[in-house]
Design goal:
The complex is a heterodimer of chains A (about 260) and B (about 450).
Chain A: E1 3-13, E2 16-27, E3 31-35, H1 42-50, E4 56-64, E5 67-68, H2 74-80, E6 82-85, E7 92-96, H3 97-106, H4 117-130, E8 141-142, H5 148-162, E9 166-170, H6 178-191, E10 197-202, E11 215-220, E12 223-228, H7 231-239, H8 241-254
Parallel strand pairs in A: 3-10, 3-11, 6-9, 9-10
Antiparallel strand pairs in A: 1-2, 1-4, 4-5, 7-8, 11-12
Chain B: E1 2-3, H1 27-42, E2 67-68, H2 74-83, E3 92-97, E4 100-105, H3 109-113, E5 117-120, H4 121-127, H5 129-135, H6 146-155, E6 160-164, E7 174-180, E8 185-187, E9 190-195, E10 200-209, E11 221-231, E12 236-244, E13 249-259, E14 264-271, E15 276-285, E16 291-300, E17 305-314, E18 320-329, E19 334-343, E20 351-360, E21 366-375, E22 381-390, H7 393-400, H8 406-423, H9 428-443
Helix pairs in contact in B: 1-6, 4-5, 7-8, 8-9
The chains are: A alpha/beta (about 260), B alpha/beta (about 450).
């Protein structure tokens, strides 16, 4: 089965263990949500999957459709089908969205093959329309002076253009007003399908009203402490993260 | 388009033997050259102890190997003409090889009728004596290269004279090429641009070495150029220099820009080539409401050295100047910047800015910046600052997370960094050309340097 599989993953940064034995499987065609309080290690998990050099994997494995992901460079992972929508995407001064995405799309073509510019722009404009973005946006420098909503929309635009096998959305809902949230959710929903697995990381249940997950996992202190269907998100919303923390405590005790 | 007859003067002697006697120049000009030669001989060579040569590798300025350019063979000339590709659309064009005019596309009859003069220097000094003598090297070189300015004055044998009369606007840019092609050859490129009231013009100068395919060692050469830009009242001039000399060339370029009231001058100097390239730029704001934008971009790698010295001289009140220099340095390259904003007494209400940014791509590259202010008037607004930094790791990771390999990601980041300067030109066709030159530089293969091995087809268009 085509799955992004994380097994017993342990991650440290500056000698501090942030992810502590996490296991999770996201099959293609499904949307899994990870919910958790601040500091639970959600963003660390996202960055580790994308290959951020600051984090050290000390144990466990991550495989994508059976292939070991951890031994690949960040750009190799991306070309093979991993995509991370950043919580705080970087600014790239002086590089336009059109040129940035063009370099990204071009990097996926076999050596010696040139990107067909007309097709590229046709696709770019189509995806922008889907996300309610003005065409003039393509000539702005990546994330430079963007509002929070514009940044998140740009992340989803990239997701739409690069068509990954697995997408990790790190707090894509944070900082969005309800209209922007709906637009972004609409964009993500239109990309759902049998060829893509989505891992949706969030602090709040709100986005799950718009992007309905197949499974929900609760992450506390670097581990998944509960998993369930979409109703788990509502339960968590009702009972609060303390309830989840208690569950984590129980887990620690039963170890 | 017309081919220009070969110049019969074929000197192969050392440039240190002094001005040519065979040249058919007016007596007053020859006399001026002899005077300049004396001055060159009497002035001391610069040393690093001079503040204006601090951090400069003055040892690279040994002139003894360099000879006067000779006439080129037909093959070489054909190759130069073949490689003289710059902008697609221009108002006129001159091509100099070894200081000899080898081709020209003249300005339209219409512009000629309106009084525009676009001529080789040696004709202008005969046909427009008064205008020529009034403006030719009328300002002393105050930024360190007085000796080399004297050398230029003594040995200059051709160049460009461009006069744009009152109210005439030339829409398309005027393009000039200067080529070096022989081993140890020297050139003394000259541009004298004079604009009258409310005139408007853009000039693009290309400085290039003939690409000798298959030859390992690029020939050594010496370029010692002067450009004087004079913006009359309300005039608007744009000057772009695209310097891509070969890797064994030593180059000096001395610029004076004079801005009269309500005029504006914008210059952008792109430095990519040469072993050592020094650029001195003096902006004189002599009339109220004048504005000068000083822009420069350089990409230095290997052991290249770029050396920039500037003076923003505010003589009149209500004048503005804005300097933005950006350098990207790799390998063991070095960049030096020494710049002064001077606000003279009575030059109240001056707005003057100076910003230098260095992007260090390797641990061994080195950037030295010496910004300075000298304010002798009240009510002025001046800021200056110089910073050096490396590529932001988070930014690099962001690009990599999109599948972009490291060398391409770095190039994109550097290109973006430099783009802020090039965009200020607000001339898309010229900007596109400059971006192509920068991309070519990145694509060049260097021994022992992995960045040249990267795929080049990943680069975007501008």
């Amino acid at each position: 089965m085509k799955t992004l599989t994380i097994e017993n993953l342990r991650v440290t940064i500056a000698d501090q263990e942030i992810v502590r034995g996490l296991s999770l499987a996201v099959p293609r065609g499904e949307v899994h949500a990870i919910m958790g309080p601040n500091g639970s290690g959600k963003s660390t998990l996202a960055k580790v999957l994308a290959g951020h050099p600051d984090y050290q994997v000390t144990a466990g494995s991550v495989t994508m459709d059976g292939e070991n992901l951890l031994e690949l460079e960040p750009d190799e992972r991306a070309r093979k089908g991993i995509f991370l929508a950043f919580q705080y995407p970087s600014e790239v001064p002086g590089v336009t969205i059109a040129n940035f995405l063009r370099a990204a799309v071009q990097s996926r073509l076999p050596e010696g093959e040139e990107l067909e510019a007309t097709d590229y722009y046709a696709k770019l404009y189509e995806k922008m329309e889907l996300l309610g973005m003005d065409r003039a946006f393509t000539s702005r420098a990546v994330n430079e002076g963007f509002s929070g909503g514009e940044k998140k929309r740009t992340e989803i635009l990239q997701l739409a253009m690069l068509e990954p096998k697995y997408a990790i959305l790190d707090e894509t809902d944070s900082g969005l007003d309800i209209d922007a949230l709906k637009t972004v959710a609409h964009g993500v929903n239109s990309l759902r399908g049998p060829d893509i697995g989505i891992l949706l990381i969030t602090h709040y249940q709100r986005i799950l009203n718009y992007i309905v997950p197949d499974d929900v996992h609760v992450m506390v202190q670097g581990r998944i402490v509960r998993s369930g269907g979409k109703e788990l998100a509502l339960e968590l919303e009702e009972r609060g993260y303390d309830w989840a923390r208690e569950a984590a405590g129980e887990m620690a005790l039963t170890r | 388009m017309s081919l220009v007859a070969h110049d019969e003067v074929n000197q192969a002697g050392s440039i240190l033997s002094g001005p040519a006697v065979l040249r058919d120049f007016p007596d007053w000009f020859r006399e001026q050259q002899r005077e300049a030669w004396k001055q060159f001989e009497s002035l001391p060579s610069p040393t690093r102890k001079d503040q204006l040569w601090r951090f400069s590798n003055v040892d690279l300025l040994d002139l003894s190997p360099f000879k006067f350019g000779g006439a080129q063979s037909d093959d070489v000339r054909d190759a130069i003409l073949e490689q003289s590709r710059g902008l697609d659309e221009v108002a006129a064009r001159l091509i100099f090889a070894g200081d000899q005019l080898i081709e020209r596309d003249v300005i339209s009859e219409q512009l000629k009728k309106r009084g525009v003069i676009f001529q080789p220097l040696e004709r202008a000094m005969v046909e427009h004596v008064d205008l020529f003598r009034k403006h030719f090297m009328s300002q002393p070189a105050v930024l360190g290269s007085a000796k080399f300015a004297a050398l230029h004055k003594a040995l200059v044998s051709s160049g460009t004279f461009l006069y744009v009369p009152r109210g005439v606007e030339i829409e398309l840019p005027i393009e000039i090429f200067h080529w070096l092609h022989d081993e140890n050859a020297s050139v003394f490129p000259h541009l004298l641009l004079v604009t009258d009231e409310l005139a408007k013009v853009t000039v693009v100068e290309h400085f290039r070495s003939l690409d000798r395919h298959g030859e390992k060692e690029q020939p050594a050469g010496f370029a010692c150029g002067v450009n004087d830009l004079i913006a009359g009242p309300g005039a608007k001039i744009t000057y772009v220099c695209a310097q891509t000399w070969g890797e064994n060339v030593r180059a000096l370029q001395m610029n004076t820009t004079t801005v009269d009231h309500d005029a504006s001058a914008m210059s952008l100097n792109l430095h990519l080539g040469a072993k050592y390239s020094r650029f001195e730029s003096l902006s004189r704001l002599i009339g109220e409401g004048g504005r000068s934008d000083l822009l420069a971009v350089s990409v230095a790698d290997g052991t290249q050295e770029f050396d920039a010295r500037t003076l923003q001289d505010h003589v009149s009140p209500h004048t503005a100047s804005d300097l933005l220099y950006k350098n990207a340095l790799d390998d063991r390259a070095r960049c030096t910047f020494g710049g002064l904003i001077r606000v003279e007494p009575h030059a109240h209400f001056t707005d003057a800015y100076q910003k230098v940014r260095n992007l260090l791509l390797s641990d061994d590259s080195e950037a030295n910046s010496m910004p300075g202010l000298e304010i002798l008037a009240d009510n002025v607004r001046c800021t200056h600052g110089a910073t050096s930094g490396q590529v932001d790791e988070e930014e690099l990771f962001y690009l990599r997370s999109r599948g972009i390999p490291v060398p391409v990601a770095q190039r994109l980041i550097v290109t973006g960094f430099l783009n802020e300067v090039i965009q200020r030109l607000d001339q898309p066709a010229i900007a596109a050309h400059l971006h192509r030159l920068i991309e070519n530089k990145f694509a060049q293969f260097r021994n022992g340097n992995s960045k040249g091995k990267a795929r080049t087809n990943l680069l975007p268009d501008y």
